Queue: 2 jobs
Job 1
Amino acid sequence: MKKKKIPLYVKILIGMGLGLIWGLSAKSLGLVEFTQDWIKPWGDIFIRALKLIAIPLIIFSLIDGVSNLSDISKLSRIGGRTIAFYFTTTIVAISVGLVLVNIIRPGKLLSDERRESLRETYASQLDETVVSAHELGEAGPLQPVVDIVPDNFFNAASSNSNMLQIIFFSILFGVAMILTKSEKVTPVKAFFDGANHVVLRIVDIIMQFAPIGVFALLASLNIDGELMMALGTYSLNVVLALAAMMFLVYPVILRLFTRMKVATFYKGILPAQMLAFSTSSSAATLPVTMDCAERNLGVAEEISSFVLPLGATINMDGTAIHQGVSAVFIAQAFGIDLTLGQQLTILLTAVLSSIGAAAVPGAGIIMLVIVMEAVGLDPLGLALILAVDRPLDMMRTVVNITGDSTVAVVVAHSENSLNTPAGEPADPVS
Ligand code: ASP
């Protein structure tokens, strides 16, 4: 009898489960040092490999995707729709967070002693966060636009944090290919098409190591269960708002704007979600998000190669929720009642700062300083929530990439570029 192969996502799930068990029990078994020395490096190798392939993937798939478009007007239509959806979902996300935090009021439940002890423990970590945020805040208003245009291709390609610059160059290159009506372009096109296939195969190869990688990543996380409980109501508030996005808002969007079944969607992006949870980085997850969108959900490459890298950089619904809830939570804990105007300021700054946040672990908490200062809150209050940032980061990153994938499906549907996923029956409207 032929042995049935265990699907990759099941293996990743097993890796995650074992990693979490190991991570939670390492301290009591005295295995922390062993874990850092012998297990963590495998997780680091896995993340490095994913990051390694991110820039080549964006360059090849975006140039290939854009140059396949029949005309430039299609590109601007896709771009306009994508940005409109990204803005709208982020605003909805923060609003959900703000409504919930005003109902639950977790900040009122923190005891005075707990507040003091958290402040003392995390005050030193805070300095770095506040300094990084201030460096970001000092630039002029148009600096973010200036930063999108690279002055040197190799500089731009030398750091994963320059993703928008690489997107800019790739779109420019693709557009120039469409505009160059000469057979000289044919081999260039063939090259990018071929290279894109090769890069996708590299993603496949790296993903074979995902079960070991996620095991190592989760096993070496130091999650403090006790503190998590102390900040339980706050964490629960963030998780509830994230869940509302995942199980209410995105399904409604899919229902309204596409014909895809919610179950098909979630099954298709599960591998990317598991990776987002394990790496806390939308950027590191990007190659797999693109792979899932194209192969499992049938999003055409010309759409996914544009919408998803852009989304990983500017669309962070989970981060936005976290910023809204955290700012209000800290104000409540300080006994400050924020006015409606101040909460609107939080909404606006959180939209902007979630756009500006880098797609890496902990980026959201740095940007939170800017949100807090916008309404006059002392950034020292961040000390109250730093302890539970990592687990919440893992969860908000899942929402971040789910939001990107939802918009990719919606835009693909609107452009008639949603192919039937391989091996799946067409999804009729039910
Ligand atoms: N870790 C998040 C991401 O990569 C960003 C954040 O909220 O810290 O999407």
Job 2
Amino acid sequence: MATEQTYVMVKPDGVQRGLCGEIISRFERKGLKIVAMKFMIIKKETAEVHYGEHKGKGFFDSLISFITSGPVLAMVLEGDNAVSVCRNLMGKTNPQESAPGTVRGDFGMVTGMNIIHGSDSTKSAEREISIFFKPEELVSYKRTADVWTYE
Ligand code: IDP
Ligand code: MG
């Protein structure tokens, strides 16, 4: 089993639209384990580090002002292939192209307000988790439901 951790974040539009509970619930029901969670307003400098790969692109400035415009719900989720499992639950970057049943497919209308972020690789996940969480904030525990989740 390839147990991974991934960084998932409800963006300010998702928080303002009251979707935090719905989104957490989807990941929980899938079988992902919550390892850490934090509600915060991201500082501009931190946002620029988090989205560093997009620096220089046309949408960078609006992305930074959007992601810092209100609180986000940040979390670390764990499970078998958690990175790709979470990306699949999120849907494509453009919500108009995201499949129904995904978070973006069900709740979003435009790319600039696509509700949710999720790491795109285990390398990104490691980097992003370390930006938003201290190692001691990742909670280590046994989840009894795992015996009914994994063979
Ligand atoms: P991802 O969130 O699906 O990984 P990325 O390409 O990494 O997509 O882009 C990061 C975020 O930047 C997107 O989720 C979206 O909010 C924003 N973004 C990406 N491309 C565009 C665009 O063309 N216009 C406006 N915003 C964009
Ligand atoms: Mg990305």
